[in-house]
Amino acid sequence: MRVYFTFDPRPDLKESLLKDFPEVDFVFHKKIDEEELAKAEVLVTYGEDLDNEKIKIAEKVEWIFVASAGIEKMPAQAIADRGIVVSNVRGIHKKPMAESILAHLLSIKRALPFIYKQQSEKIWNQQTKLYELNGSTALILGPGAIGSEVGRMLQAFEVYTIGLNRSGESALYMNETHSMDKLKQLLPKADIVISILPSTKETKYLLTYEDFTLMKNNCIFMNFGRGDLVRTEDLIKALEEKQIFHAVLDVYETEPLPSDSKLWEMDNVTLSPHISSRSSRYLERSFEIFKPSLRKWMNGERDLENVMDILRGY
User: Fold this and answer.
1) Does residue 249 belong to any structural domain of this protein?
2) What's the pTM value of the predicted model, to 2 decimals?
3) Are 84 and 132 members of one domain?
4) Which tens digits make up the pLDDT trace of 195-233?
5) pLDDT per residue over 239-271, tens digit each?
């Protein structure tokens, strides 16, 4: 069996693969080589380097393992037409992303940007407002693996958590869970609105300017899912009008965020360059999912972890 990585993992991870699967022919490249792609039976990729033409070239590939949670940039229809199995690393982001979200929240509540600025300017200034996280209500859009981990951490701070998902079925570490059609009803209750939604037909531009007017004017909005949840102009208008207190963004409608975007200049927004899920343990956790799945695949089993519906996007 030939397994082709379109990225080059660190040496210790490669060595563990070679040791555990001596019967497999592994190929590691930093970018796609079309000759190697044509020979591959299993493809391991971050997903962004694939297009319709490359799927045609990969005529032997039957399984694509995506070392990422998002698959919106992949040629979904071409993959579905071929019947290629797609699985990903859903769940590995929950620890670093939850820590990032909590860090930003505490930073805003406890005025850390102000404190750091005063320190850099050697100014002793106590004139700032400080808030507490406990006693808040957080509305979490997408209480899956990541959202539930966020909920677990927030509940430790005595935050009341409300989850919104497609089904309305209960989710871990949510005090309440509702279906997405309750969005407008629940937005006015939230002190914090956190989105961890993927990019799908249903979630694209789910939030509108009108939704921001329904939020409290002291609400903190955080988008850590995908940038097309809201049109940039709607978000900017809401921030300019102070419809909400602050926005924390890790994802954007256009990435990288254009240098002429008004968002760069606004004092009520925190911009993170889509790095909240990054961790020194990212690939280590990815391999913890890939290796058991590869063993199953070699044994003829197809009930792999995190198999996705490529056309739905999750």
Assistant:
1) yes
2) 0.85
3) no
4) 999 999 999 999 999 999 999 999 999 999 999 999 999
5) 999 999 999 999 999 999 999 999 999 999 999
Q: Is residue 309 part of a domain?
A: no
HEC-encoded secondary structure of the chain:
CEEEECCCCCHHHHHHHHHHCCCCEEEECCCCCHHHHHHCCEEEECCCCCCHHHHHHCCCCCEEEECCCCCCCCCHHHHHHHCCEEEECCCCCHHHHHHHHHHHHHHHHCCHHHHHHHHHCCCCCCCCCCCCCCCCEEEEECCCHHHHHHHHHHHHCCCEEEEEECCCCCCCCCCEEEEHHHHHHHHHHCCEEEECCCCCCCCCCCECHHHHHHCCCCCEEEECCCHHHECHHHHHHHHHCCCCCEEEECCCCCCCCCCCCHHHHCCCEEECCCCCCCCCCHHHHHHHHHHHHHHHHHCCCCCCCCECCCCCCC
Same domain, 16 and 126: no
Domain range for 12 is 2-92+280-298
pLDDT band at 53 (very low <50, low <70, confident <90, very high): very high
User: Do residue 243 and residue 155 come from a single domain?
Assistant: yes
Check whether 104 has a pLDDT greater than 80.
yes
Q: Quick one: 288 and 230 in the same domain?
A: no
CATH number for 81: 3.40.50.720
Q: pLDDT tens, 140-185?
A: 999 999 999 999 999 999 999 999 999 999 999 999 999 999 999 9
Is residue 311 in a domain?
no
Looking at the domain assignment, is residue 162 inside a domain?
yes
Q: In total, how many domains does the chain have?
A: 2
